[in-house]
Give the backbone structure.
Amino acid sequence: MTLLAKSKDEKRNIAARTLKEHIDDCLFIFDFLKEAFPKAADVSGLGQKFWDLLKTAIICHDLGKAHCEFQKLLNGEPDKWKSQRHELFSLPFVEALSNLGKEDIDILKLVVAGHHKDFEKLREALNFYESDGFGMLETIDEEVEAFDTSFKKYVGQKSALELLHQYGISVNTIIPKPIHGFVHYYNKQPYRLNNEKYFALMLLFGGLKWCDHLGSAMVTDLKILTPKSFAFLLAQQKNLQEKGLDFYSHQKKAAMINDNLILTAPTGSGKTESAFLWLQNQLQVNGQGRAFYILPFTASINAMYQRSNKAIGDECVGMLHGKLSEYLNNYFDELQYSTAAKKDSIQNIKEKFKSIVTPVKVATPFQLLKHLFGLKGYEQGIFEMAGAYIIFDEIHAYSPEVFAQIKALLEFSTKYLGVKVMIMTATMPTFLQEELEHSLGKFALVKADETLYKDFRRHKVVLQEGFLHDNLEEVKNSLQAGKKVLVVCNTVKAAQTVFKELRTDVEEGKALLLHGSFTGADRARIEKDLMQKEINLLVGTQAIEVSLDIDYDIIYSEPAPIDALIQRFGRVNRKREKGICECIVFKEHNSDDEYIYEPVLVGKTIQALEKIIHSNKGIIDEALLQQSINEVYDKWTTNDKKKFEDQYKYLSAALQLLAPMFKNKYTEEDFYKQFDGIKILPQINKDAFEECLNNFDFIGAESQKVQIRKGRFKGWLQSGNLKKDVFAFGKNSKLNVEYYFVTNKKYNSELGLLADEGEGWKTTEIF
């Protein structure tokens, strides 16, 4: 009898898959894992035996599908399977393996049993069988029988054994045992970090899941980084040398480091190239491993993805962040894909980026941190991190809580997973760097040359009395003089007010406003215009600090902490082709700014800038910036220190409880709490939103919404500015309704959401 593993998928026009074919598909992925993740064996603590056990797990994991009722189910015949778990019926075959000792068999049983459902869910599956004394459960069927009896009665052992023989695996006499005790024991005593077999179980399980997942998808196009992947670096160096130049010394030093690295260099001095030079050397010296390029903001990630994918090529780069669907939606809109083709393409690319198919991922830190919080699929995530290379850019930009999580991540990954780390910064306070140094253990420090810092003198800070919004005539004068002007405010409201006042002084189509209160669709349009059009006036909030690769002649800014100001200044004279450009900062701040930045830090920043003006006539010497940064951030504030320590202690303790195949709902809840945002629909976009839903274009529908803080959401709900609405799909649809929140606050595609301006409700359907 030929055993099936997958039934026919008529919708996708995929034929039924035999168990032999499925195992072979999984073993193809297995061979790739051995090549791409060689350090997994050492991390597991098993050495090369790790790969032998993983291969055995792959061959045995679905043998329980030999159950005759499951085969009827796959063949589309009437069956009495009743949603039992085929994984459990695979266990007697594992127990009978003749070439393994008891310890190896015990760990393989756990891996095979849990490869679809966690052990809490498996406990529910025990209701199908008579209790063997381990926890009396309420059964779902009065006609239950013992598990061992059921196995003997229904499982086609002959076909399964013939299959094992084809793979050269021999077994002893199969003697099925009661199952309740096995499942209950792991639920009671799961493997935790203090168990010597912890990483063996974690990585065997993660490896099996990758093989099963990608094997089931019949993936055959898997990538690794090769010397050819870094050819762009050689071409870039050759191009520089033809002009009598070369890579900077800090770039060359990074290319020689074999261990963890902290690199300090000014913005625009080739830190990205430094990172890939370091990565190239790591792969040559330390072997294969996946690479993660970590950035804090979506705009930075999108830009880095496009840049690195073009450089490395061969579809070796993926990206992960919370707005990936919106990014892909806009990308395929530009290519004029139909809605159906767009949905399929978006789903395919998302699955590819989430998997181990691409050897480089540009991502937020949360894409790695979520594994430490035990979110779904974390065992696969930890497998992917084994022997990985992690590059952190713009690491100064995180809150105390996230910085604490990153510290815990660095400690865990470097200590247990064989991870190598590169941290790059231009503006990091010394006390934060010391926290990172303690996390890395062995590391090298590289800093750009003093002469290079002198070459990067490009900004002159000017402090002015009063408020920015009271001095807009000066901004208008700069515009009339033909300068490209950047104006940065601390709040959306202030940016909107300033933009409305200034936009009439610029030729139509050459002024833009950019902040976080636009819909996804409008934000994408604005960023596209910013890159493709000649924009003489850009007004925005701190969103500009991490925005696209833009270059302006002068900046007018509201006061902010020094690290934020340095990032803003970095959008002026970016290419150092304009001599010294003025960066004008006003001393007075609006009362609402205190919700964004701590007044103490802003006050210290003003003092630090005054010193720069006094000592160097305002010209910023980037070699001396560290001193100014340390004056502002000499230590944690009391409040930030508490946030940092509480989060670090919490996550460190949570890691001690993280167990393979065991969901930790408490850490998962805490992980999602840190994202302070809820999407709402401006009522002016209601028609466009519903048109997208009618076409089942859910990503397009989401792009019509604006994200607001949870506190504001609650306030508007209480004040009647937010109401719940419902969209009803057609009767024949599997989806009946779509719930969402709509606001009567005004929205303008040029200005964004106007939080202080409401209007009457325009619909009677809201309830």
User: Anything to note?
Assistant: The chain is about 45% helix and 15% strand. Residues 4-216 form a domain with the Hypothetical protein af1432 fold (CATH 1.10.3210).
